[in-house]
Each structure stands twice: as C-alpha cells, then as structure tokens.
Amino acid sequence: MNKDNQVLEELTSKEYEHGWTIDIETDSAPKGLNEGIIRFISAKKNEPEWLLEWRLKAYRQWTKMTEPKWPNVTYPPIDYQDLIYYSAPKQKVQPKNLEDVDPELIKTFEKLGISLTEQKRLTGVAVDAVIDSVSVATTYKTTLAELGIIFCSFSEAVKEHPELVKKYMGSVVPVNDNYFAALNSAVFTDGSFCYIPKGVRCPMELSTYFRINAANTGQFERTLIVADEGSYVSYLEGCTAPMRDENQLHAAVVEIYAMKDAQVKYSTVQNWYPGDKHGKGGIYNFVTKRGLCFGDGSKISWTQVETGSAITWKYPSCILKGDNSMGEFYSVAVTNNYQQADTGTKMIHIGKNTKSRIVSKGISAGHSQNSYRGQVKIMKRAENARNFSQCDSLLMGDKCGAHTFPYIDVENNSARIEHEATTSKIGEDQIFYCLQRGIDEESAVALIVNGYAKEVLNQLPMEFAVEAQKLLALTLEGSVG
Amino acid sequence: MNVSVNESNISSEIAQLIEKDLVLDIPGSSLRKEALEIFKRLGLPANKAEEYKDTPIARLLQKNFSFQSPSVRSTADPASFLIPSLEANVIVFINGHYSKENSRIISPDSEIAISSLADALAADDPVVLKHFAKHADFKVDALTAWNTAAWNEGLFLHIRKNQVTKPIIIHHIQDAVAGEVVTVSRNLLVVDGGSKTTLIEKFDSCGQANHFSNHVTEVVVAENAEANFYSIQNDNGNRYQYNLTQFYQLNNSRVNTYSFTLNGKMIRNNLQLLLDGEGIESHMFGLYLLDKDSLADNHTVVDHRKANSFSNELYKGIMDGNSKGVFNGKIYVRPNAQKTNAFQANRNILLTDKATVNTKPQLEIWADDVKCSHGCTTGQLDEEAMFYLRTRGISKDTARAMVLYAFAGEILDNVNHPELKHYLDQLVSERLHKNF
Amino acid sequence: MLTIKNLQAKIDGKQILTGVNLEVKAGEVHAIMGPNGSGKSTLASVLAGREEYEVTEGQVEFLGKNLLEMAPEERARDGVFLAFQYPVEIPGVSTINFMKTALNQIRVHRGQQPLDAVSFLKLMKEKMKLVEMDQSLLNRSLNEGFSGGEKKRNEIFQMAMLEPKLSILDETDSGLDIDALKIVANGVNKLRNKSNGVIVVTHYQRLLDYIIPDFVHVLYRGRIVKSGTKELALELEAKGYDWIKDELALA
C-alpha cells in the first residue's frame, strides 16, 4: 500500500467527534405522517387556527408531489411513514431564563462548544439553540429588544408577532416550492425568527445552533429573517447530530426577505453526522434556502461550509428583484467516505443593475461524490446585470468524483457573465515544498486546503472561521491523493 | 394535415412512416427493426427533457412538418454551393439522393474505399459490420434511433492504413423549392491506423418550404491516425436539422473538429467524442453566427475513458435579431483516465435585447490526477473598443464588423487547411457584413 | 479653431464639468492642468464624443461646426484626435489592419483615394520612426500585451498617421519613464505646426518641459479657474494646487 492510500485510510478511520447522545426525556409524536400528526404538532404547540390551516394546505400539496430525482445523488427510498415528526426535549415548564433550562441541555451546548451562559455574552453573539426541532433557549434577548430587533424561536414569533409571521412566512419559499419545502411547511416544529427594524444595524452576530438528538426523528426547522429598510444583520447557523446507524432526515427551510438597502449575511457551518466510513448512517440534509432582495439596493450574502451529512441537497439562492440589488454565494463543500453532496446556488436577476458573485470550492475525498449545481438567470428586463462565478473542485484520491453543472441563461444583451471552473488534484509540488520546509504531510494538506478555501472562509465571522478551519483540517488532514 | 399539438402524435406518426418504408429480410433490417422499437419506446424528447430543454424539437416538427409529401428529386444546380478552389473528393447528395453527375472521386481505391453504406452492408464488409451503429448509441436518443431505423442513403468511407489522403467533401443539399423535404442520412468513416484525412460535411439548402434532415455520422479513428472534420451549415432560413457526429478514438489518435453554423431555423448538433485510448489529442472548435429567429443548439460530449489524453474545446457565438444560441458541453473523465487534461471554453456576444443564450458547461470527473477547466462568458459588443475605433475615424458599422470579426477570428485561426481557411474566412466575413 | 463655451457635462447623474470656457487657435499648444478629479479627462472624453457623458449645457465649435452634434468618427474624420490615457486592447484586430481601415476611411472622407498596400506600408514605416516604434508591434493585436510605454507610443504613432488638426493628449505622460517620455514628446513636437492645435492634459509639469505650451489653464471643480503662460505650470509644480484652492476660497 503506498503512502497516499495509507494516509487516506487514516483519514477515513477518523471518528466523528460530535457523535454522542444525551439522555433527555423526549416528548415525541408517534411514527408516521398524516393529517392527525399535523394536528397533533399544531396542538402541542398551541398554534392558532391559521397556522394549522397553512400546514394542512402544505401537507395536501406534498401528498401530490414527488421527490426530486435530478440531483446527482443516490440513496434508498425514504419511508416517510417510518419517521417521527415531532420530538421535543421534555421540560416541565417553559424556561424563563437560563437558570431554568435543563442542565443536561446546557451541558450539551457546552460539549458543542456553545455556551449559553454569561461568558458567551462577552463575545457578543446572541444564540438561539434548537434541539430536535424545538428552540430551547435564546440569549441576549433584552439587549436586542431595546433596538427593536426581534430574535426568538419561531413558535414564540407565532405567538408574539403573528402579523409579521403571517405576512412573510412562505413569501420567499412558497409552500409548494419543492417536495422538501412542502414537507417542512406541513410539519416544521420550530426554528428561529428574526426581524431587524428600519435603519438598525444589528450590533452582534445572531446565531442558531441546530442539533438532532432523538433517533428516527426528522428535523424540520424553519428560519425566517426579515430585514427592514436600511438594516443590517449577520446571521450564523451551526449544525451537529449524534452518530446513529440509521439515516436521519433533515428538511429545513430558510427564508430571507430584504427590503430597500437592507443587508443580510447568512453563514452556515454544517457538520451533521456524515455516516461512518462505510457509508452507514448519517443525515439526509435536504434544505431549501432562499433570499429575496425585494428592495432596491438590498444585498444578501450566503456563506456555507459544508462538511457533514451523508447527503446534501441544498441551493441557497438569491432572487434579485430590486434594482441595484446584489447576491453572493460563497461555499466550501467537503465530502469524504461515501458522502454525497449536490449543492450550489441560483441567482435570478430581475431588477436593473443587479450583481451576483458565486465562489464555490468543492473538495472530494474517499468514495464521495461532490457536485456543484448552479443557475445564473438574467431575465429580459434585468438591464446591466453582472455575474461572476468561480467553481473549483479539488480531488483527493482516485475513487471520488467531482461534478460541475452550471446553467447560464441570458435574455438581456447588456448582461455581462463570466463563469470559470477548474478541477484538479492537490498540488504535489505544493506539498513537496511544505515537506521540504519541514512541515509534515497532514499539516501541509490542511495548510493547502485552507488556502484553497480561503476566499470563502474569509467571508465567515471570526469565531466561525476558526471553527470552520478546524473542521476542514479534521476532515481532510493527510488525505493526499 | 394533422394539426394537433400533442407531442406523442408526432412520434407515432413518424414511427408509422418508418414502419411503412421498412423492408424486411435484407441486410441490416433486423437492426432497423430494433431501432424502430426503441424509437417507439422513447418517442421524441418531451419539452421538459433535460437534454432538449432549449430545443423543443418534437413541437417544432409537429408544427412545421406534415411528413406526407414524398421527397422529390431536385433539379437544383449545386455549383453555387461547391468550394471551387478546394482539391478534394466531392460527393453530392441532393434531397438525400446521391448525385453521381455532380460527384467526383479523385483519390485511388488504394487510399480511400468509397461505397454506399447499403452496398457495404450487403457485401458483409467486416469493417462495416464491426463499426456500423456500434458507436452512435441509438438506445438512448430517439433521433438517433429514428436515423438508425430509417436512414435512406449513406456512405461508407474507409481510409486504408498509412495513407494521407486528399480531403473528402460531402455536400448535403436540400432543395425545398417544390415543397417540404425530409431526409434521413447516415455515414460511416473509418480512418485506419497511421492515416490522415479531412472530411468536410457541408449543408446547404434552397427553396422556401420547410426542410428537415436527420443526419448521423460515425467516425472511427484508429491508432496513430488523424481526422479533421468540418461541418459547415450555411442553409437558408427554413432548415431544421438534427446532426449527430460520433467519434471513436483509439491510442495516439488525433481529431480536430470545426463546426460553423451560419444560418438555419433549428439546428441541433450533437458532437460526441469517445476517447478510448491513451495519448489521444482532440480539439473542437465551433462558431455560430445567428440572426433573425435562428436557433442553434450545440451539445458536445468529450468522454475520457483512458489515461494520458488531452482535449480542448472552444465554441464562440454571436447572436443577433431574435436568435437563440445554446451550448451544452460535457466533459467526462472516467475513473481510469488519470493524467487527463481537458479544457473547454464558450464565449458569447448578444447583439440585441431580443437575442438569448443558454449555456451549460459541465465537468464530471472521477479521476484525481487531472487538470480540467471550463469557462464561459456572455456579454455584448465591447463598447470601449467601439469608441476607440470610432475616435480614429472608423465608422460605427465598420467598427462593429471589425470587433465581431476579431471575435470570430479566434476560431478561423485554428483552421489548418489553407484553402478551407480562405473559404471560411470569406464566408464568415460576408456573414458579418465586413466592408473593409 | 476650437471654441468651448460654458461646457457642462455629467456622468451617472454626477456633474463633472460645470462651465468650461476655452479658445484654441491654430498653431497653439494649450496645457490643461488640475488636481485629480477636477474633470480633465472628462473634458477630453467629451470633446472626443464618449457617449456615457451627457452634455447638459454649453457649446463647442470646431472649425465652424457644432462638435457636440457629431458622432465620434465624424469628429475624428474632421481632425479631432484623442490620445487615450488608457489605450484600449482589442484582441484579434491587428494594429496594421486597424490603422489601414482608419486611414482609408478618413481619406475617403477628405475626398482622397484610399492608399494601396504599398504606399500604406511606406507611410507606416516612416511614421513609426517618429516614435521609435518596433515594427513587430504592428502585426500584433491592437495594444494587446503592449507595455505602458508601447501603448502610449502607439497613440502618438496613430496621431502621426492620421494627421489631425486638433490633438488632445490625455495624461499621455502617465506611466512613462523619462526616456519614453522624451520619445513621445519628441514625436508630438515634430507634428506641431502652424495649422494644428494641441491640448495637453496633464497632472504634472514634467511633460511640459518637453512640450512647451503657449498657454496653461488650471481646471478645478469642472471649470477653468486660472489661465496663464508656461510660468503658471512651474508655479504649480513648486507650490502644488492648494494655493489655487485657497485663492478661490478667498475670492
């Protein structure tokens, strides 16, 4: 066995660090999905009638839809009747403050490196934590409230700000947008809600941590961010799940609505359990993320570092409706072992002078398949639209695959579109150069990969960038092809 | 005439026509029957079919063709379509029929064996039996299945071992003066080891009625052989065409393809290269200059099956009027194809706000030690260059033609046959209304 | 030959020229100086007919014609030449073909016969010597891969070929080392004569050591705020532009 393969072996035998389960008594729905279950979820959450109706409508649409077959991924058919659609950590009373939160939960977050306690406040990050689809704690709420910023769990928003939820939920991702969005709309249990009022610049990063804990449970959370005129917010999302032999389903929806001159930056570090080295277990991550640059001069920027999940199906997109609006997509997607990722973005240019930028860096190792799929569409009326796309793939080892599927559709001649893509292996000369300077191979690879992904990592807020870099190194150190 | 717009109607109508003309118990008829069954099963691609999403071929055929009138013999004089200065073997087909009086073979049989495909099949020629319908996969594409089931006339060109031949030019002329014309034609070119040849397929047409051609060419390029392949599509505005050129390349072979699409109503070109050997070099160049309501859809596939090969592709397009350009380029690098270098670029200029372009470059890589890239750009005429030229006293029209000609010139520069280069240069210049 | 009256222009809604007045007579060399962003290059572009600029006010008369009504190529054919600050690269168009097209279209406009290939080449060789330009550049694509100095020399070479009546040199000295600067200035001086006017747009006095102006104007906030002779340029070099700003503030 040559050295390269040996290093690869080592890589593939790495254990998933976040793979422990916590014993929290859950309050679950029975398996299966029908209108009764949806009524159960809605009742559990004391929801108003209009929301139940909304869910039922989504469910009825979903039953008429079929799972998309076009992604470049394969998996055994999902038995949607064999899943649990509601699983809440059991708590006697709703926590009023952090002291009331189940200490086990606090421990969970500490293990994850997320402290909900005071010390975290020093770093200036407001956290909403969601375990098995239920928001368990939101920090920093009062400070934000003074600025008029609403940052709370989705359930709370339904109760406290029904007019906002009613107005914007489903306005960017319609109920019947796609199979998984419809499913989410029917059964979503919780998530985060955020509203930034006119002219307010949110002074801290807002953050949601998602964790799937219970077995056989689907997680269906929903995030809705509304940025009013001239506001700014940077939003972070982190995800982990324990090791389990069965595949678990995660079908989330994120909607961003940006009004005139508003800016929203949405960063994700996705580290769901990817399955073991034989491809057993892992999360099916079927996520719909879309931002609407509704107002003139608005901007939505997606940054994602995707290292986890057995299967990723995810296209954070921007609809550039307002004139002079701008969309960005920065992505690093790493796949290893038997992971499959089909991810990318859509930039739909509708308004005049709209701009978009796509930077995608794929890294495939092991037996994984990594696909970039993206669309840049310039509509007839989108005068002077600009797009630049760079999609690079790095291959490590000869058993993986890298695929690039860009669609570029231009209907306006004043558009200027540039798309570039490259595929190559990690540079042997670069590694040799490092080795010659006394750097060991694993560090060299980490160094080079981090350099390769730098343009994307640079987009992440500080604390996240460090975490993302560690994750990249962890997944790939030593995997020289 | 049947005016229903149901796509399945047109498929079954075509299937009936094929069936009607199918002669059983002659060489090759079992293959035709098999292909017909596949055509029946597949049907013409539906409007939403991924590979035909920008070219609704079933709808267009349904709408514009009756498929009832028998192909008429033409009296057209092909002289104006010939390339006068080119010293070549000339073969002329008019409305799908071989025109002996207009054809002229100058290469001896010791260099090139030329025969009709039907004769070669009837004679059990081992080379034909080995390759015919083995490369153009009729099991996945309905139009190829249609062709395989219903081809009317075709050529078998066999370049014998270690020969450097004069070019072969095949004129496909459709004369639609008397009415609708539909032709289904087929070629097989085998370039034996160590040989070098140039095949030019030139498509022209006259007449106002609609005309459709379904044309498939298979090209086998053996070890150390070289094939230069030109497709020149300069039809009048009513030609509909499906054109598949399937290459099969073996070790150390070399292929250069040049595609020029200057006109036509609906042109669908599938150019597919299967690189089944090591040390192969393939270059693909394409230029599409479209105006009015032309649609040109170039689908290319380069499939690297083995190690140490190189492919390079450059397609450029200028869209004027209401025209639509489509480019879909796939590069596959299979698990064994280490040390592959594969490059692709597609550049487009949109001249009007009614013209559109859809491009989809695709890389699918399963080997790690590779260098692959694709790039595509879409923009309008370079305003800065236009201004610069005009401040030097050059008129707007001339400046425009200069900038466009310079854009197209990158393709012409790669044409390595002097007479052809001269001819194509003229053709392109005229097309761009060059007046300097 | 050129009379500019109260010329005002804007781009993307931003007013750049706020009322330029200038008279250039045959045989004169005018230098237009000014701090960055004062509108120098805008003035040059407006005179050449760049379409992005919108003229909101004022007149420009050139040899009795309303210049502002003319297309860029018509201005060029009537003898307006702009040496670009950033000459444009045009891949695929050779310098030789470009120059031949331009010259012959101008000749036809002037009622002359187009030059045949032989006399054209002869003329080119002659003019190339003027700016010490390497002949190999002619077969290359226009300005593509040219160094900064080569591009600027190419501009002056074109000026020599087209024999304009009014030449506008837009920051021709920028990015040139002293040797290249001398070559370029020398070329311009050789082309100077009694019937031609020259406008030299520059930020620094340096170029004016080699191309001696008859008049120097200071452009500030879109209009000419001070005019003088070549001594004004030396004063500007010594004191910078601030004293003019101060003077204006006082006035």
Quick recap of the structure?
With 436 residues, chain B is of the alpha/beta class.
Describe what you observe in this structure:
The complex is a heterotrimer of chains A (481), B (436) and C (251). In chain A, 25% of the residues lie in helices and 35% in strands. By secondary structure, chain A is an alpha/beta fold. Chain A has one domain (27-427). In chain A, strands 5, 6, 8, 10, 11, 13, 15, 16, 18, 20 and 22 form an eleven-stranded mixed sheet that branches. A ten-stranded mixed sheet of chain A has the order 4-3-7-9-12-14-17-19-21-23. Mean pLDDT of chain A is 80; it is low at 1-17, 19-24, 91-96 and 115-124. By secondary structure, chain B is α/β, with parallel strands linked by helices. Chain B folds into two domains: 73-380, no CATH class; 381-436, no CATH class. Chain B has nine helices and 19 strands. Chain B has helices at 7-21, 29-42, 57-64, 117-122, 126-131, 142-150, 383-391, 396-412, 418-431, and strands spanning 89-94, 97-98, 112-116, 153-159, 168-175, 181-191, 196-206, 211-221, 226-233, 239-249, 254-261, 266-275, 281-290, 295-304, 310-319, 324-333, 341-350, 356-365, 371-379. Chain B is globular. The radius of gyration of chain C is 18 Å and the shape is globular. Chain C is built from eight helices and twelve strands. In chain C, helix 5 (148-162) packs parallel to helix 6. By secondary structure, chain C is α/β, with parallel strands linked by helices. In chain C, the strands form three sheets. A six-stranded mixed sheet of chain C has the order 6-9-10-3-11-12, sandwiched between helices. A four-stranded antiparallel sheet of chain C has the order 2-1-4-5, with helices on one face. A two-stranded antiparallel sheet of chain C has the order 7-8. The longest helix of chain C is centred in the middle third of the chain and has 15 residues, at 95-109. The two termini of chain C are 32 Å apart. Chains in contact: A-B, B-C. The interface between A and B is medium-sized, with 35 and 35 residues. Strand 23 (416-425) of chain A pairs antiparallel with strand 19 (371-379) of chain B, so a sheet runs across the interface.
